[in-house]
Design brief:
The protein is an all-alpha fold and 447 residues long. It is built from 16 helices and 2 strands. The protein has 2 domains: 186 residues, Growth Hormone, Chain: A, CATH 1.20.1250; 212 residues, Growth Hormone, Chain: A.
């Protein structure tokens, strides 16, 4: 008789990589969506249809992120009751529907509404990917694959900018902004097709007492030798409420994880969505001075800058288990502040363009090696089992609030005080992130 292998103890195989890749698609799509929106906005402004004020630009940029925030909370709660499979297939359908709606939008509020719908799908995937990965991967590989899932967003940032560049290169017409969103719809379709032959989480089924279905799902994923064992719960204490989290030691953990995540959100999404516009404002787009060639040049520069998002994640994943992750995050915030100061000095003192470009590259590398990666994994490191669910939820909400505010206020800051004000505020936010990290890290005896 063949000996069965529990999925939590199974040796790593190509099937695990495939599962992680399919489960992580919304991480890629979310980053690509943010980048595509950042290319769409200047094209719509040139075209003048639909017309957009600075306020409208902020709302358009933040609509998808608001959808992500709500989608992750709502679907994260539903998956505990309904299971993962239906929602896992629903998310790419919402992404496709939102993309089609954006394509046919003729006024700004319709555009905002459909971007929000696409964001709902992405946000749901954010909750589901970590669930599937945590419950299907071998236990010793869970942290690595959860971090790797987050790192796939680097492909989305580069891919979104690359698609924008190719489309504009082939047809330098601002009206092509509609065609760009079809890339997001295509990614949603691919994701849906990959999930047709998919199965419910074996561990979720086991938790529901559906033992036979759980064993069948395990075998569908990994073959006839796989099995799933019941989880042990006897030592698990009762969970804390959100209200309890804002007291005593738990409050310090909330501030450490939630506020730093909010500070990180400005750099990742505020800069991520409006990077082509910031590149033009800083004069880093190359020789083109006006019109669509200027936008095309800014998108080309964006591609090169975004490549270092992946380099940052690779650096962070390589060292995070060898260093104190709070020190990694705190010092990365400081390096990011210094690089933004270099950008500001380069702009005001008319330094050579290569200095500003290099500053941007170092900024992206350390932002993603430190705060972007660490804020995603730190709640599981600092919250006890009894408070982990509530603590992670609050920290995630803080991150999304920071991202939405960063994206919303970016065009407003540009309109009010130009790129200088954007950089001054961004420097301050990164320094606040560093201060919170070191102050509360020491207070909690984590440094």
């Amino acid at each position: 008789m063949t000996k069965l292998i529990p999925i939590a103890e199974a040796p790593l195989s190509w099937k695990h990589w495939y599962i992680a890749g399919v489960a992580s698609m919304e991480q890629l799509i979310g980053a690509a969506l943010s980048t595509i929106v950042g290319v769409m906005i200047p094209l719509i402004l040139y075209l003048g249809s639909p017309s957009m004020t600075a306020f409208d630009q902020g709302v358009v940029g933040a609509a998808g992120l608001a959808g992500i925030a709500i989608g992750s909370m709502v679907m994260g709660g539903l998956m505990d009751k309904w299971g993962y499979l239906f929602l896992f297939r629903l998310c790419p359908v919402l992404i496709m529907a939102g993309s089609v709606g954006v394509y046919f939008s003729d006024e700004v509020w319709s555009l905002i509404a459909w971007l929000f719908v696409a964001g709902l799908g992405v946000g749901g995937g954010y909750s589901l990917d970590s669930g599937y990965i945590s419950e299907i991967m071998p236990e010793k590989w869970v942290s690595f694959f959860v971090g790797l899932a987050k790192a796939t967003c680097a492909l989305g940032f580069v891919g979104g900018a690359l698609v924008g560049y190719i489309v504009l290169k082939e047809d330098p017409n601002p009206a092509v902004w509609r065609d760009l969103i079809l890339f997001i719809g295509a990614l949603g379709l691919i994701t849906f097709l990959l999930r047709i032959h998919w199965y419910q989480s074996p561990r979720w089924l086991m938790e529901q007492g559906r033992t036979r279905a759980a064993q069948k799902a395990a075998k569908e994923f990994f073959g006839p030798d796989a099995e799933v064992l019941p989880q042990k719960h006897e030592d698990a204490p009762k969970g804390e409420s959100w209200f309890d989290m804002f007291k005593g030691e738990s409050l310090k953990k909330v501030i450490l994880s939630g506020v730093t995540w909010a500070c990180e959100g400005l750099g990742v999404y505020g800069f991520g969505v409006f990077l082509p516009i910031l590149v033009m404002a800083l004069g880093l787009q190359g020789e083109a001075a006006v019109g669509i060639p200027k936008v095309l040049g800014s998108v080309k520069t964006t591609i090169f800058i975004n490549i270092f998002i992946g380099a940052g994640f690779a650096l962070g994943l390589g060292i995070m288990n060898k260093v104190n992750i709070l020190k990694l995050m705190g010092w990365s915030f400081i390096v990011c502040s210094a690089m933004l100061a270099m950008l500001l000095a380069g702009y005001e003192l008319h330094w050579p363009v290569w200095i500003s470009f290099a500053s941007f590259v170092v900024f992206e590398t350390f932002l993603n090696a430190g705060p972007h990666l660490v804020t995603y994994v730190i709640p599981a490191r600092i919250f006890s089992v009894s408070e982990r669910g509530a603590g992670t939820g609050i920290a995630t909400l803080g991150g999304k609030i920071g991202a939405v505010l960063g994206v919303f206020f970016m065009p407003v800051l540009l309109r009010v005080g130009g790129v200088e004000l954007v950089l001054y505020v961004s420097i301050a936010v990164n320094l606040i992130g560093a201060a919170i990290t070191f102050i509360y890290g020491k207070s909690l005896k984590l440094l």
